[in-house]
Amino acid sequence: MLKKAICSMALFAAVISFAETESAPNYHGTPKRTILDYGPFTNPAVVKRNAASTPATGTCGNPAAGCLFYGGDFLFDPFSANVANGLANESTSFVPGTPYGAATWVAFTVPEKEVWEVTGLFTNDMSDYGVLDQSPSQPTSVAYWAVMQGVEPGIPGTIVASGTSPATSTPTGRAAFDLIEFTIQVTGLAFELTPGSYWMTVVPVCTNTGNPYCGEVFFENDVEYINTLPTNAYGPPEPVDASFFDSPYFGVIFDPTNGPLGACGGLGCDAFSAGVLGKAFK
């Protein structure tokens, strides 16, 4: 199992300091699909931690807290031969689009003989600042979310549920590639999923193009299943090599994320750090 680890931002000053001292790559040149597309990095394995950071709700290995599925933590392992990476996941002035400029669709499974009552969804994303934008007409931060069935390479599936909802952005305490990890989460949802295969996405949305933070970057973090489950993974194991990348901005229609011809060009992206909240009924 592979992963990367990242720094937290309790205060904005901490984030700015991180960006200034780490000689960050120029993420705001020509937009690219993956984190590694911005390399080479002088030290991609750098691990930063802040013990005072608030654990993200995405670390949801506790069923009492309403966790149904979590793919696991983004962790950098310097001794692993696997590649840490992440895919663009945003609707910003940097990668614009409606309902998104780029989205990573993460595979998950509802087990047989269960019905899931979904109340929330989240993705763990690398970002330069992690701010969800606001505007006078949209006073709360929002994210686009959706769950889909029947996705195939080059073919969108059927939307089961979707919307644009108030969202939170919470630092996880992990950081790598000169970026910081945030949990982008929507709650207050109410829909049911019967047994089967599904794909989910949660995409941070810019609503105020006059806000400079609308030009930041978000990358959905990958995780790697090697011999054991990723740290804090919970629920039905995430299907490996089953996720998709869709992006009107990059001219991609539901490309597989993995493999030499996939969206990540064979550099990671076998599975992703995302999750589903709610209750299971049998």
How would you describe the overall organization of this protein?
The protein has 282 residues and is mainly beta. It has one domain. It is 4% helix and 37% strand. It has one helix at 12-21, and strands at 67-70, 86-88, 103-110, 115-127, 142-149, 158-176, 179-193, 196-205, 218-223, 244-247, 252-256, 271-272, 274-281. Strands 1, 2, 3, 4, 5, 6, 7, 8, 9, 10, 11, 12 and 13 form a 13-stranded antiparallel β-sheet that branches. The chain is globular, with a radius of gyration of 17 Å.
- Please give the alpha-carbon distance between the first and last residues: 31 Å
Number of distinct beta strands = 13
Mean pLDDT: 82
Structural class: mainly beta
User: Globular, elongated, flat, extended or rod-shaped: what is the shape?
Assistant: globular
Low-confidence stretches: 1-23, 46-58
Q: Which range best describes the helical content: under 10%, 10-25%, 25-40%, 40-55%, 55-70% or over 70%?
A: under 10%
The helix tally amounts to: 1
Rg, alpha carbons: 17 Å
- The total domain count is 1
The main pleated sheet reads as: 13 strands, antiparallel
Strand content: 35-45%
